[in-house]
Specification:
The structure is a homodimer of 152-residue chains.
Chain A: H1 7-32, H2 38-49, E1 54-56, H3 57-64, H4 68-80, E2 84-88, E3 96-100, H5 102-122, H6 129-147
Antiparallel strand pairs in A: 1-3, 2-3
Helix pairs in contact in A: 1-5, 2-3, 2-5, 3-4
Chain B binds a DNA duplex (30 and 30 nucleotides) through residues 56-58, 61, 67-74, 76, 89, 92-96.
DNA sequence: ACATTGTTATTGCAATTGCAACGACAAGAT
DNA sequence: ATCTTGTCGTTGCAATTGCAATAACAATGT
């Protein structure tokens, strides 16, 4: 899919390559700074956005776009590192809530300083404001369309 | 990074989420059709684009945006499946060339029919032509910028 | 109350990946 | 020719991931 004739397929091709290259660079930057991988950042960020810094595993998985079993292993390791804490859910005997710790918040802030620089250098630097806004709205449409299969 | 104030950071946030969701769906579609994973498609496509359907491992890894060791394992499995064939490189005693087989071409075509539908449904469907063109050029700039560190 | 069905989080296991180290060869200097 | 230095492709090993199966509980209907 290199000389794709259709502009939409062409856009997809660039999207795929850019994605691979950028994540590679970002992971390298985290590694060079002695910080954990991007997946941990995502978990920390989703938790920090949540009411009370806590979320049930199911919701955490969905919002971080990670498989159910994967979020279990991920939070296992993060709990060992003292970044999150798990506790039984009082409203649902099956459930578990995952809560951000102070240490988790601190690490996310530290990771963000590295992440932000990378996003700017590798991505934002090459976009005009109008372009960035267009990409936001377009991708938001795309994201919403994948979730439309349960509402109504 | 949800209510990101900066439009570029907002664009990045959507980019990350869309990427995860779309790849998840596409892999699921391949799996449901009894086809291999997307990584195999990428390798097949890069080879098919190459002169003579053959490429040295190093170039294959770079063009498919895969680590060196990973392309070795990937082509190991694909060779066992009869999709590619490896041979020593005549011009360089260290090198290995990886060549697409007829079976490999056939599988790529079959995978494309599934892949194409997914790209259209999940991605292209939600973009205007102007938007698609803008995304293509913007991401091309981004891709090019990551490679600029060796020329000159 | 009870049985049935669905959901939640976890785990075992196999498969995949990244990282560092390796052997084989090429390229350039002396 | 020899010696260093760098590159190519592969592999061992540890870590990570996906998939299917599981136990525990919720929700619904009878």
């Amino acid at each position: 899919m290199s000389p794709a004739p259709d502009p939409r397929q062409r856009a997809w091709a660039r999207f795929v390559v850019a994605q691979a290259l950028l994540f590679e660079r970002i992971e390298a930057a985290f590694g060079a700074a002695g910080l954990p991988e991007l997946a941990w950042y995502d978990i920390l960020w989703v938790l920090e956005c949540a009411e009370g810094g806590r979320l049930r595993m199911h919701d955490l998985a969905r919002q971080a776009v990670v498989s159910r079993s994967n979020v279990t292993r991920l939070t296992d390791r993060m709990e060992k590192a003292g970044l999150v804490a798990r506790a039984d859910c009082p409203e649902d005997g099956r459930g578990t809530v995952c809560e951000l710790t102070a240490r988790g918040r601190a690490l996310r802030a530290k990771m963000w300083s590295v992440y932000r620089k990378q996003i700017d250098t590798l991505f934002g630097q090459h976009l005009g404001v109008r372009e960035a806004e267009m990409i936001s709205t377009a991708f938001e449409r795309i994201i919403d369309s994948t979730n439309q299969r349960k509402s109504t």
